[in-house]
Amino acid sequence: MKDERVLLAHGSGGLMSQRLIDEVFKKAWSNEILDNMLDGAVMEVPSGRMAMSTDSFVITPLFFPGGDIGKLAICGTVNDLVACGARPLYLSVAFIIEEGLAMDQLRSIVKSMAETAEEAGIKLITGDTKVVEKGSADRVFINTTGIGFIPEGIDFRPGRIEPGDKIIVTGQVGDHGLAILSQREGLSFTTPALSDCAPLYQLGEIVNKYGNSIKCMRDPTRGGLATVLNEIAGQAQIGVRVQEADIPVSLVVRGACDMLGMDPLYMANEGKMVIFAAADAAEGILADLQSLPQTADAAVIGEATSEPEGMVLITTELGARRILGMLEGEHVPRIC
Amino acid sequence: MKDERVLLAHGSGGLMSQRLIDEVFKKAWSNEILDNMLDGAVMEVPSGRMAMSTDSFVITPLFFPGGDIGKLAICGTVNDLVACGARPLYLSVAFIIEEGLAMDQLRSIVKSMAETAEEAGIKLITGDTKVVEKGSADRVFINTTGIGFIPEGIDFRPGRIEPGDKIIVTGQVGDHGLAILSQREGLSFTTPALSDCAPLYQLGEIVNKYGNSIKCMRDPTRGGLATVLNEIAGQAQIGVRVQEADIPVSLVVRGACDMLGMDPLYMANEGKMVIFAAADAAEGILADLQSLPQTADAAVIGEATSEPEGMVLITTELGARRILGMLEGEHVPRIC
């Protein structure tokens, strides 16, 4: 139906809710678990260590170069599971929709979720939809919560990091932040700024091959690379040293950041991982990452040190050494 | 700090986010899994059938007689897991906060979540916080996603329901709906209208004792008892007959609904369960329910029939028989 919109009654739990579920969600996501349509999903799981991660997505704009809120909502949670060393298996999806959202936009988001989940090999197994009055939310917010299983012997708690471990970033940083910012502010560049939004399921191969030689992984989303390095340094009680010249940044991000007075190291990423790895395995990991399309631009950017504990030091491109702190205040609101 | 409020920077992923997590969430919810503060929670699980359920809570007002959005967010997901036959074990929690929310209100919600989770025996193990600009959400929305394990041999899929199975409701219906409505509209009654919001973990004992003599359970939240009966009738391809006179409704709900022209059978509940049980077990289940404080007002309200398939018939208090349909349109928006 043209000009069809989401109405409050679509969130009533009654007949209209059922129609929305049947015609929009089930059509796109059908699988043997979801189709039972119970109060929750029921599935057989193996024993072992399970990872569970949750994220709400409130990004604006809903559609941006390189993705949309639906793709992002799958990638964000998949990547958090991957960062735990887990193989992502199942996702729940919960929508909060502002009354009046165009049904076509919702369908498009739902389709993009289906495609990304398929690519990542994860199943959407249960969901929830709430609709609030016009003005009580901004179009649509999505929560995804995922579970996955961690192979025997994998332990990515930062406490395992030791001085001398190498730090790898799996590609260029800052792309997602710039894509959102440029879309929002109407900036345009010769090379378009595309979000790096991607589900990093391919890292599963690296985890399987190198096991515990990988000490810790984390995806540098809100707060960017600098914030994640600080988090890990604090949790692992180690020092971190990185070389600015070794951190991959695309020309468009570099140029735009210079112009806007922003720092790519604090800009959000949605398809990158920071990996701490034992020194003797780092070269192999790097070579393998570079052979995978998702992580072809991977680079070693620094290493863990014994001191100063909890602190990140960066050697700038001009050779100066300075403290790289956590993000303070707000950088770009509603980036994810 | 007095007059402290949630700021956009609390959702930045940087220093302010970390402070909010440390000072508000971790303080109230500390446990050995949450305290790891990784991108996701990691825990050992047994093999078997797992249930997973998600719900977002957008209720207004945030605080109401008998509960608040925090208590509700725990009860809602716990009860969905119970309805799957599962023992609730772990919950993720995701907040979407409107900039400017009073920090005291957030603390109070977080405290009430901690208390309800403790009562229900479920652990809050991972979370997420987003903050959006003033006007982009209505104070606070909460998503909870829960997982639990289903004991060997339990199967609550509606397909197991047979003609002759008895239908039990575990207490008076309509209390939550009326509590919210009266608070919102400033109505007051001689007996105050209290929400029935409660985590129904005690039903675990009934599930363990009666096993597969219980055919199906579902909690009648949005859309009320009438909608849930219709859902089950449709999914099980059976008929449902209930006697209005046997459905427990408190005097205050009955009186208020008469006055407001509303039907308690469509009003939301947040601490009730509808149970379909084999006829030969129904009496025992009822007696056991009545001996538990949470379900003391349980009653048999009708039974499953072979026809008319997918339809709910009600014998009214005056003896007339009519079709009890699903909720159409919107009854009370933002009830949960």
Summarize the structure.
Chain A folds into 2 domains: 8-150, PurM-like, N-terminal domain (60s Ribosomal Protein L30, Chain: A); 158-323, PurM-like C-terminal domain (Phosphoribosyl-aminoimidazole Synthetase, Chain A, domain 2), CATH 3.90.650.
SSE blueprint and pairings:
The structure is a homodimer of 336-residue chains.
Chain A: H1 15-29, E1 41-45, E2 48-57, E3 63-64, E4 67-68, H2 69-83, E5 87-98, H3 103-120, E6 123-132, E7 140-150, E8 166-169, H4 175-185, H5 203-210, E9 214-218, H6 224-236, E10 239-243, H7 251-260, E11 274-277, H8 279-290, E12 299-305, E13 312-315, E14 321-323
Parallel strand pairs in A: 5-6, 10-13
Antiparallel strand pairs in A: 2-7, 3-4, 5-7, 8-11, 8-12, 9-11, 10-12, 13-14
How much helicity do the residues of chain A have? 25-40%
Assembly type of the shown chains? homodimer
How large, in whole angstroms, is the Cα Rg of chain A?
21 Å
| CATH homologous superfamily designation of the largest domain in chain A | PurM-like C-terminal domain
The total count of helices of chain A amounts to 8
- What is the approximate shape of chain A? globular
> If classified by CATH, what would the architecture of the largest domain in chain A be?
Alpha-Beta Complex
Task: Indicate the proportion of strand residues of chain A.
Answer: 25-35%
Determine the structural class of chain A based on helices, strands and strand pairing: alpha+beta
Largest interface: A-B, 84 and 84 residues
How are helices and strands ordered from N to C of chain A? HEEEEHEHEEEHHEHEHEHEEE
CATH class of the largest domain in chain A: Alpha Beta
- Let me know the largest β-sheet of chain A: 7 strands, mixed
Unreliable stretches of chain A (pLDDT < 50, length at least 5) are none
**Tally of extended strands of chain A?**
14
Q: What's the CATH topology name of the largest domain in chain A?
A: Phosphoribosyl-aminoimidazole Synthetase, Chain A, domain 2
The average pLDDT value of chain A, as a whole number, equals 95
- Cα end-to-end separation of chain A: 30 Å
Supply the number of structural domains of chain A. 2
Strands in their spatial order, largest beta sheet of chain A: 9-11-8-12-10-13-14
